Amino acid sequence: MPMKVVTIATDLENPFLTRLLMPSCRDAGLDLIVLHSTKEQFTFADKRAALTAYLSEAADPDELTVFTDAYDTLFIQGKQHIERAYARFPQRVVFSGETNSWPIGVIGLALRENPPVGRLPYLNSGGFIGPAGDLLDLCTRYPEPPSERFTVLERLRAHGYDTTAQFSFSDQYHWTLVQLLEPDRIGVDHDAAIFEYYGPTGSHLVMQEPLYDVIEFREKGVAAGSYQRERARLLEQLQTPSGAAQLHFASTVTKAAFLHLLDEGLLPEWVASVTANDTAAAR
Prior knowledge:
By secondary structure, the chain is of the alpha/beta class. The protein has helices at residues 15-27, 44-58, 79-86, 106-110, 132-141, 151-158, 163-167, 171-181, 209-220, 225-237, 252-263, 269-272, and strands at 3-9, 32-36, 64-68, 73-75, 93-98, 122-131, 186-189, 195-197, 246-248. Helix 1 links the parallel strand 1 (3-9) and strand 2. Residues 5-140 form the PLOD1-3-like GT domain.
């Protein structure tokens, strides 16, 4: 089965893209397609539009397509591993999982009838996989977040709290709602068989915490408490090798800590061996 890895980038010089994602795909034998957008003030809705255009114009409907974020991911396994792990899912489309109901917090918990499953219970939109035709169908069927399909969200809107207005900045909000409507078609990689989330964990009740951490890091740099905590957490977590194919270092602080650990030669060998400091050509 043919396979493509697709990402969308506005900054082709981003260090995570050039130093990590691109060379890691090359070394894993993965065919990476970088869709370059020059649009100013690029939004997550633009990302879905760019992916939809690619899928409708360039992709074989049966081609297995892996979408990955451009600026915070890398691959440590290739096509064979991904296909083998993907085949174990009953759903045709599988999204990465994470520890938090980001960005909607406790609202996301209220939308679910069942308790959380696995160590990564909530959808993460930084990585997903499925046949190109299925991904295209989902993109075209849900051009906007389907919030009107959820009684809880309609009740909140009646009280003046429009979740789409609040959270449309996040592609994760959009795909979380779609997955909840299509559970037989869209699965979540709760146990990191394909995608492993290395972002920060936090309280569902205080979803502003990651934003405060980023602000502190931008103001104080590596002296920030948020940076020091995230660096220590990440280094400890990376002591255990991942069984996934894609690693996702979500958040500005996590990415900075990972790059610094790479430059300082402090990453464990299992991940350091696939983080060559060079730039591969993208198609």
